[in-house]
Fold this sequence. Notes:
The chain is an alpha/beta fold. The protein is 29% helix and 26% strand. Strand 5, helix 3 (111-114) and strand 6 (120-124) form a beta-alpha-beta unit.
Amino acid sequence: MEVNLFGHRILVEKNEWLWHLHLKITDKCNAKCSFCVEQNAERCENAEYFIIQVDEMLSEMEKEGILYSVSVTGGEPLLFEKFTKLCEVLGKHDIKFLTINTNGKYLENHIKEIDGLFDFVDISRHAISDKKNNEIFGTCMPSLVDLERIKGKLLKTKMRLQCVLCDANTIEDVLNMIDAYSFADDLSFRKLMKLSEKSGIKYDEKEELYNKILEYAYNHFEFIEQTIQDYYVYEIWKYKDTLITFSYSNMKMLSEIEKAEDNSVCREFIIHPDGTISGSWNKNMKVIKK
């Protein structure tokens, strides 16, 4: 369907689940995960202008009837110097589903701002052992005891733990992670994106294990939902009392499609750290407003 954003004719899917705005509020991060695509980010930020752009973009999307889900991400978003102001702006708009992705290091400092405003706080956690988890992040992170305590402080916002399988080698390892993290409302296992050697990112290949745990889920878990949203695929299962999401983003496919399609076609929207609003993770493509 056609909408108008800042005077531009934009084509979006006629599906509210695909009306999504990513707020990439900072490239800064306190962690040094070897597999993270953000470690080579260009670090070009403008916090004041970013806030203005967020407010205006949310207003434009509301006006066109396509404001549905918004995710706050980074880098580490809780390092954003205007985080409190951002929360004030988000609270002004009728966002149906709001999430924040964080490694959890500074989460307790912002509980009052986050609880009740966000539907989910998604926290990265990649090993049961606190020591091993710190090694993966390259710095000291909240312990499992810390995370369970934080969960108790989130009275209205749900907690999802997001894991990559870098510390798991067997189905039993994954099941142990599920049991260890069962205090959370939801678990998400992410299949890492395959990146080219030019990226300089160390890629930990666990595709075989990922496929094995999906097969195990098919035979032992309760199936809830499977969704394919353009370049993003996810399956939701229930094991004991825990909801578990397996997800994968095919960024290579997205990159190839974007090279060939009309710039007016936007499957999602991204506000980049310098305030550029575009319909692509490449801020120089499908620019809607600088």
